[in-house]
Specification:
The complex is a heterodimer of chains A (344) and B (113).
Chain A lengths: L1 H12 L6 H19 L6 H11 L2 H8 L12 H29 L3 H31 L27 H20 L5 E2 L8 E2 L1 H4 L2 H21 L4 H32 L4 H6 L9 H39 L1 H13 L4
Antiparallel strand pairs in A: 1-2
Helix pairs in contact in A: 1-2, 1-4, 5-6, 5-7, 7-9, 9-10, 10-12
Chain B lengths: L6 H23 L4 E2 H10 L6 H13 L3 E6 L6 E6 L1 H26 L1
Antiparallel strand pairs in B: 1-3, 2-3
Helix pairs in contact in B: 1-4
Classes of the chains: A mainly alpha (344), B alpha+beta (113).
Chain lengths: 344, 113
């Protein structure tokens, strides 16, 4: 009976505490019933082995006593889970790559940069863990992502509309990029700046440092609309309007930053960027004040480029919005499908 | 043409077929109280071989659903848990039997064509 004892004990380890003892007792009586019914006289170890093999491995037997379909993240949620994990990992990789670069250039001790890399494992684990916990809560309380109590109506299936499908990888790129900048601005605001000689404190961009809440608001707005866009998977009039609104807000913030840099530069330097460059001391490391001026110029150029890109994107979305609004696309596609029909 | 059935596919389909009728077979035999091993024996004698690992957990699930009642009986050589059908189980058995007979009749017709 020793094998049976060990078996029962092992099954118990996988059973919920609540009715563990009861199931164990029943299992024991069933096993012994079967064993005795089969064998005349004293059953040997061989018989026990054969019987237990029939019953199956302890973990499997215990599982069959638990309610069906136990999931951490069930099949319905899994595709979304996978996308979220993918995006989160991408953000983590980029953030750490950026931090690694910054640390490498700003810190005299190269080992510090390796610290950043080793920190990646820890952050990846905690981020993945958090995602799993959130999804498990959804799973546990059986929260459907669709509205509850609403019957699914096939007539509400989206119309096939290839032209208005979003560019998924492009949208993911936007989400990841915005996320990365957001994380850096929120978590490492003191790292945004420049270091002249390794070991000296970081010279912060004073304009950016004083506008962090505004920048964060613009980034979150962009993030929200792009996640919504990704979720929908298609361009709709409302979606386009939301993107335009978020872009206009970003443009406002960028404009504030550009004018802030302009004012700062006017205060701290009399000459323009190119005369400044031509007057640079040759063969020497420029001092902190001069470096900051150069950096402020560069940041301003970057902001102007960002502004141009955003303006172009906004105009494009606006143009498509108007086309969709007027319904040219629809009319054109009808003409096209009528042309194609005879071939079918 | 290859007419051999992949054995794992066959096994899986047979299991699925049997799983459907298992509840019906179990409820039908529990008009009087029985313990697990006696039930499995009785079913086997009448030609229905059920895996022990399938039947025992099923008995507990049916009990949790209120279709069976159970009780430990210490009168025999060792304690045994006896299961008997509940009133709710009786009415379910009635409804399921009708369902089964209809299904069996239809399938007979389909398969004889």
């Amino acid at each position: 009976m020793e094998l049976i004892d060990r078996y029962i004990y092992e099954v118990g380890r996988y059973l919920p505490r609540k009715n563990r003892a009861d199931i164990q007792a029943e299992l024991r009586s069933l096993l012994i019933d079967t064993l005795e019914a089969r064998e005349e006289g004293e059953p040997g170890e061989e018989d026990e082995v054969a019987l237990l093999k029939e019953f199956g491995p302890p973990a499997k037997v215990a599982a069959s006593y638990r309610p069906e379909s136990q999931y951490l993240v069930g099949p319905e949620l899994f595709p979304i889970f996978r996308t979220v994990v993918g995006i989160a990992l991408l953000v983590l990789v980029v953030v750490h790559a950026v931090l690694f670069g910054i640390t490498l250039f700003t810190n005299p001790d190269p080992l510090k940069a390796l610290d950043v890399l080793s920190g990646f494992t820890g952050s990846a684990m905690s981020v993945l863990g958090t995602i799993v916990v959130v999804f498990y809560v959804f799973q546990y309380f059986d929260i459907r992502l669709a509205k509850p109590g609403q019957e699914w109506d096939p007539r509400e299936l989206p119309v096939i509309d290839v032209k208005n499908e979003i560019n998924r990888s492009g949208t993911i790129f936007d989400i990841v990029l915005t996320f990365v900048i957001l994380v850096i601005v929120l978590v490492f605001p003191k790292h945004i700046g420049v270091v002249v000689t390794p070991g000296t404190p970081i010279l912060q961009d004073p304009v950016i440092a004083s506008h962090i809440p505004l920048i964060v608001a613009a980034l979150i707005a962009g993030l929200v609309v792009h996640i919504a866009l990704f979720w929908r998977g298609r361009w709709q009039l409302g979606m386009r309007l939301a993107i335009i609104a978020a872009n206009l807000f970003s443009l406002l913030v960028i404009a504030v930053l550009i004018s802030g840099h302009g004012a700062w530069l006017a205060q701290h330097t009399g000459s323009g960027f190119f005369s400044l460059l031509s007057n640079l001391p040759v063969g020497e490391v420029p001092d902190a004040a001069l470096t900051l001026v150069i950096v402020m110029y560069l940041v301003q150029f970057g902001l102007i480029i960002a502004m141009i890109v955003t303006v172009i994107e906004t105009i494009e979305v606006g143009y498509r919005f108007i086309r969709q609004l007027i319904g040219w696309d629809l009319a054109l596609s009808q003409v096209a499908s009528q042309k194609d029909d005879p071939d079918l | 043409m290859d007419t051999t059935i992949p054995s794992d596919v066959f096994e899986k389909l047979v299991q699925e077929l049997r799983r459907g009728v298992l509840v019906l077979a179990t409820l039908s035999q529990l008009g009087e109280a029985k313990y697990g091993y006696s039930l499995i024996n009785e079913l086997a004698e009448q030609g229905l071989n059920i895996d022990q690992g399938t039947l025992y957990p099923l008995l507990r699930r049916l009990e949790a659903d209120g279709l069976l009642h159970s009780q430990w009986n210490t009168a025999g050589s060792r304690p045994r848990r006896y299961y008997v059908i509940s009133p709710a189980g009786e009415s379910l058995l009635q409804a399921l039997s009708d369902e089964w007979r209809g299904l069996a009749a239809v399938l007979d017709k389909l398969l004889s064509n």
